[in-house]
Design a protein that fits this description.
About 20% of the residues lie in helices and about 20% in strands. The chain is an alpha+beta fold and about 250 residues long. It has 2 domains: about 20-55, no CATH class; about 65-240, Umud Fragment, subunit A. The strands form 2 sheets. Strands 1, 2, 3, 4, 9, 10, 11 and 12 form an 8-stranded antiparallel sheet that branches. Strands 7-6-5-8 form a 4-stranded antiparallel sheet, covered by helices on one side. β3 and β4 (about 110-120) form a beta hairpin. It is globular and about 70 Å long.
């Protein structure tokens, strides 16, 4: 006599579920969505691409159009640049020579601006030395590689110490740029908070004939570091000792 128990239908139904049915249900969700969307798969694909681009633009890179000639000759009116929003996520912050896009609200005016960083926190920036060059921390900077042809480094004379957490910025087309020089007497002294920086302009992507990787000029590599927390009076004493004219 066969004494082994034979499973009944009820016994089979009580066995643990392997999850196959649930997996099939999940995979079936996408076809259900596309059935209800006008345009089906095409609409879903477009929506997914737009969402990806939105996330990319919000957190990684964002295109900006150059509205004026203040950064000529390198950046021309109508050029589109890609701004790297993660550029300073793993660095201490913007460096001298970087081209940055920042929110000028409360400092330059409403809107976003693009300029070159000339001084960072602790830097002593003077214009001009005896040869007409901008001087940073006692070292003259040769700007001929990016300065607009025919422009002098500045027709506005200044002698400033950049506070910690701020940036002193100038346009490459000095004769056609409203920058830190024009706001020396305004709140903040024309110095932009580092926290207002949106990102670093890394590429010119349009027009295609002007496609260029924007690199930090080597002229700033020879500038010695500033002194964070140095007072303006100390900077004045230093400039007198070094023979730099304000």
């Amino acid at each position: 006599m066969d004494t082994e128990a034979q499973p009944t239908e009820r016994d089979r139904s009580s066995r643990p579920d392997t999850g196959v049915v649930e997996e099939r249900s999940r995979f079936a969700l996408v076809p259900r969505i596309t059935e209800r969307l006008p345009g089906g798969w095409i609409t879903l694909t477009l929506f997914t691409c737009l969402l990806f681009l939105l996330l990319l633009s919000t957190f990684v890179v964002q295109p900006f159009q150059i509205p004026s000639g203040s950064m000529e000759r390198g950046l021309r009116i109508g050029d589109r640049v890609l701004v790297n929003k993660l550029a300073y996520g793993f660095e201490a912050g913007p460096r001298r020579g970087d081209v940055v896009v920042f929110d000028g609200t409360g400092y330059f005016g409403d809107g976003d601006y693009i300029k070159r960083v000339v001084g960072v926190g602790g830097d002593h920036v003077v214009c001009c030395d005896k040869d007409g060059r901008i001087d940073v921390n006692g070292r003259p900077v040769d700007e001929t590689a990016f300065l607009y042809p025919g422009d002098s480094p500045s027709t506005v004379r200044f002698d400033v110490v950049v506070p910690d957490g701020r940036l002193f910025v100038l346009g490459d087309h000095r004769a056609d740029s409203s920058d830190s020089r024009d706001h020396l007497g305004s709140p903040g002294g024309g110095m932009i908070p580092v926290g207002y920086v949106i990102g670093r302009a890394d590429w010119i992507v349009w027009p295609s004939a002007h496609w260029t990787h924007l690199r930090r000029p080597v002229a700033y590599a020879r500038v010695p570091g500033g002194e964070p927390g140095r007072s303006a009076s100390a900077a004045k004493r230093s400039s007198t000792a070094d023979g730099v004219h304000g």
